[in-house]
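Crash report, auto-generated. Payload:
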Amino acid sequence: MKFTLGWLKDHLETEASLAKIVETLIRIGLEVDKVEDPGSKLDPFITAQVTDVQKHPDADRLKICKVDTGSEQVQVVCGAPNARVGMIGVFAPAGSWIPGLDFKLKAAEIRGVKSNGMLVSEREMELSDNHEGIIELPEETIIGKPFASILGIDDPIIDIELTPNRPDCTGVRGIARDLAAAGLGRLKPSINSEPIEGTYDSPFSWSITSDDNACSYVVGRHFKGITNRPSPKWLQNRLNAIGLRPISALVDITNYIAIDLGRPLHVFDSNKLNNKTLTMRRAKSKEPFFALIDKHYKLDESKTVIGDGDKVAALAGVMGGMDSSCLPETTEVFLEVALFDPVQVATTGRAMQIESDARYRFERGVDPQSAEWGAEAAAHMILNICGGEASKKVSAGSPLDASRLIELRPDRVKTLGGIEVAIEEQIEILEKLGFSINKGTKILVSPPTWRPDIHGEADLVEEITRIIGFEKIIPISLAREQALPSVTISPRQKRYGIARRTLAAEGLEETVTWSFMGSQHADIFGGVDESLYLSNPISSDLDVLRPSIIPNLVLAAGRNMDRGLQNFGLFELGPAYQDATPEGQLLVATGIRQGNIENRNWSNSSREVDAIDAKGDALATLEAAEAPIKSLKIVTNDIPEYYHPGRSASFRLGNNILAWFGELHPSVLQKLDISSPLVGFEVFLDRIPIKKKRKTARPPLKLSPLQAVYRDLAFIFDEDYAADNMIAIALSVDDDLIENVRLFDVYTGKGIEKGKKSLAIEVMLQPRKETLTEEQIDDIIQKIVLAITNKTGGVLRS
Amino acid sequence: MTPSDLTELESSLLAEIAAADSLEKLEAVRVSVLGRKGKITEQMKGLSSLEPSARKTLGQILNQIKDRLTKAIKTQQISLEATELKNRISGETSDVTLPPRPRKIGHIHPISQVMEECVEIFGEMGFLVAEGPDIEDDFHNFTALNIPPEHPARQMHDTFYLPENDEGSRLVLRTHTSPVQIRTMENNSPPIRIIAPGRTYRSDSDATHTPMFHQVEALVIDETTHMGHLKGCIIDFCRAFFGIPDLPVRFRPSHFPFTEPSMEVDIGCIRADGELKIGNFGEGADNWLEIMGSGMVHPKVLEYGGIDSNKYQGFAFGMGIDRLAMLKYGIPDLRTFFDTDLRWLSHYGFVPLGVPSMIRGL
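Recovered output after restart:
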């Protein structure tokens, strides 16, 4: 919503400065987006009269002019052919910035003659390309006046970002009313509101079809004998200032009233109407409409139109039609001042993607009483500017009654708004805003017709507090119920945090990727539930909710590899979706690794990452999230197909899958143009059981005073034998004595038969009561060897 | 031997010890003096053949000589060992300018860090962290928040919709964290004091908007909380979060369907040389940056949440976590948050042990 300071002062009597007005607008909730003062760059330029012209003694084409600026006589050397005694031009004093020349004018001597400024051309003022001579102003121009005022651009423009609840401030008058209530002056009485008795009966009339269309009430009025000349200068200046192009008096008047009073109007050239009755009705299916903006539309039954018989003369509340538009030759018009349903106008405007000043106002809800006073205001302006006669008014329908009474408890501003305001002051503020107050045993407030946004007591508290000023409300820090804060996050949320920081500590970079992905990629990963397709994706590569985070990380890995980066790990702790239910959203800690475990370095300690690195990441996450590590089982036949079938597994707790890890399937990577192998893992944090009661005490630490004994054993197995199994067998031989079994070597190659491998373990025996004898040690080692060879078919390596 | 012979022997042995210039030679001297057949040992053995008085006198002298020789050998040994060590390490060097072997450490994304910072601050004020699903129903995302069906926010160009289900209703991706307010009210009785950080979605993608972003929501419901508390809570938060104790905070009336009265919150800043700085730049530095929307919970919203609006009241506010991170940590471009550029992640990320804490600093 744009308006000028001068325009505001038509309605507001105030001494306040522009800065004060802007500050107050912001303070009361009318957010000022921008203030422009287009005249400010023309500030130094004033009108001046040439009082004397002499030839320059040393230059044929130059003249020495004496210029009267109203306050002094200045000597100027000038080359313009049209400079002559008596003419009024535009004077730029020394020191001013000349926009068209892009320099700062200095007092100078030109061929020995002093020159203290210049008389400027239109090009020098950036008004046109004309440089034939200096600007000549009409004889009656007063000298010493700012040139900006002559151009009509000396009026600062204020642009307000209007919230949708304030239809009243779609008119300058509403803004003035708010400022007056805030103590910034006095709201002037409205002009152009005196009823005008028509001189004849309107030859045109209204009807509203009972098809539940958007129109509840419409007023009309006919004008004849009018001249649709260009609008007067003041009106054109106002419209130009706010970015509206002046067209003709009739069009300009309707635009002006929309901005001035927030009342959209339309005038039809009545000679172009086919019928004597215009009808508010729903459009027919595929009914054509040729809009004023020179565009053709096809309508449907959801839209309301103003019908001229079978033709559509206007789209209700949005835009007039081209066929009945007013042109310079128009002499008779029929005025439309209607009330349209805000929701229907908004829906239509949105569907047809038409922005208009009418829609902007109707969709916020115009004052129901404006149908009457709008017809008067229009009549005043049309008769004043275009002459002619106005008919009596005609109407159809009736305005909806939206009157309501709201109780205001005197202490409510204190208890909700947090500020003490005397009830008299509360009432005064409301009255200045146009509310009527009925002060009996209860205070009952009736909002003005132009405030459809006010419904309850909280709204009244807002009105009072915003006018008082939110800055006057004293801030109070929130007090806690007890001295120390209680635990803010749940055990589950705590786990997320620890898992996240564990993974970062493991060397993976945390990332945040879209919760969406492309269905074409999802298909490579086994597809998604149809309930997870977006109806309106922003692009086809973000059209489904992700069933797993792995695809996004794989693509991210690809982007990083394209940047030349290698040997990295990425993880994300975020949602993955199985279906659209709240339970279908899982929080998954997901990560990938690429390349080598370390960057190249002089110690040659690096190697390629493999599935076991992903296993390590998964285990670290599970451990951080308090999963019962010792009870987890590795299962290799229940993993998604985007993992390498031979190099992946899940961690299970009973039947519950807690994690997947492994190498990603080469064919999946190939389809995504990823040239390097990747390993990855997914840990389903929410599936890890949460202990009900948290014990803080740890089990006692039992340290044996006796030295532990270590023995190494190596066995030969088939190559596909699972090492984990052998360790479990070894441990089970004697729970008490065998403290640990560590796998320290996996070997294939020279000395080992093809298809076989050697696994070597270090057994740690921890005596508790007395030192072990050699015989006891041999005995237990023998038992381990027997158990392993008997149960696995492995052979002790000699 | 007479005592004077013994003194002479001692002198010659001490000279031998002093002359031993290696540990091996010293050991040979030790054996020749104190060994089983050593010169002093032999003398000791000889004592037994003497008469008691002479044995006693000579014995005492011999013992003293043995002690002194032993000490001399020890002293010489320490000195020789020191020399030997010195000689050995004089040839040992490492190139200490070599880079250390790589130790890889990842980083925490700024969004996670800022979320935790928010939890820290609001936790101190007695808030609990609440959650809700990303896929919401129309009721929780719109209706219960007093957003009518025709509201522009409900249009396809703002909200992501999922396919229509069998009952003809459509789920949405939550457009704000505000539905968590409703879910919290449905499942809890006042007093309520929660924050809800999380992912949010809007069908918008340009230089300053991403289709997914993050918000943190706050909700306080009890019988007495008013706008003064709202102001106090937000001012306390802003100053703690930015670490600027005198940060100016401005409250402007605004409009949201779910609050009444509603206000937008601005903080002080200056813009200079294309850079934005948050802070207090003195009287008259009238430059403000909007950071959140807030207000007193609309009575209709309370009722939708199953809370008696005649008895209870409170406030709510919501702000963009990504934006907070950009402002606090000087990250210029929102889109880069979701780009997974490793160089960005390690530059703007946080070390894993740097857990935000109110008492240790945010």
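Post-recovery validation: The longest strand of chain A covers residues 643-653.
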